[in-house]
Amino acid sequence: MSFCRFLVSLLLAFCSLIAPLHPAGAQISWEVERTITSPEKIVDLASSLDGSRLYLLTRDGLVRVYDGEGNLTGTIPVGKGVERIKAVGLQAAGIPERLLVAEGSQVREISLQFAVKIDIDGAPFLGTADAPITIVEFSDFQCPFCARVKPLIEEVMRRNPDQVKVVFKHFPLPSHQLARPAAAAAMAAQNQGKFWEMHDRIFAAQKELSPAKIRVLAQELQLDMDRFDRDIKSPEMTRRLEKEIADGRQARVRGTPALFVNGRPVTQRTPEGIQQMIDEILGR
Known about the structure:
The protein has helices at about 5-15, 150-160, 180-190, 195-205, 210-220, 225-235, 235-250, 270-280; strands spanning about 40-45, 55-60, 60-65, 70-75, 85-90, 100-105, 105-110, 125, 135-140, 165-170, 260, 265. By secondary structure, the protein is α+β, with helices and mostly antiparallel strands.
């Protein structure tokens, strides 16, 4: 149940208290489907526009954040003087969520960044499988900006050799006609244990990319070309690629490259910006 329904339940419960004031013919049906108990007295509350989160301002100066299942996911210290809060933005639509907090004659705007769950099962990766930090890259082989990400990733891994795993996810953009064939070729190369070799070759040949060039790259890697041809045309390959795209959309990817550190979107695509996120997660 979404928190929109939860808030409606609270409103309807209040309406039931004043029901005798309304005409006898008025009818309404309601039920309380979930109750959240805060450890501190609630001063104010707000819900995200899509109902996926509930924010409770409590008298100890914290905003407690609950997810759609009623689980506490974190707290935001705002100060004991805060009297009102309001959530704005719609993360599901790619509009960053923000929290407005009112204290005396001032209103503060707090930007919120939530981690998203990304399915990386079976995706190619660099680094240690059980590394505490997972960087997910959604990429498009025809995107010129994606071709420039490699030095950034290499620098981050150089600084954190045992702490970082980098996972590659395909997100071919509709405007790039060769992005899907290139992604399929890379996935076919992955089936033969040579994803990263194909990955590097495709980006290196990005300006001269064509179906014929992609095939030449596969031959240079000495792939089993009969298997390669079968794989890139198979329904299973199409299904896998569509799943990759769906994963990107679920993570609210709008363009490429899109990087995530342990599910948190990267806003500063620099070694320093990513390192700061890593240090915060590792508590360094």
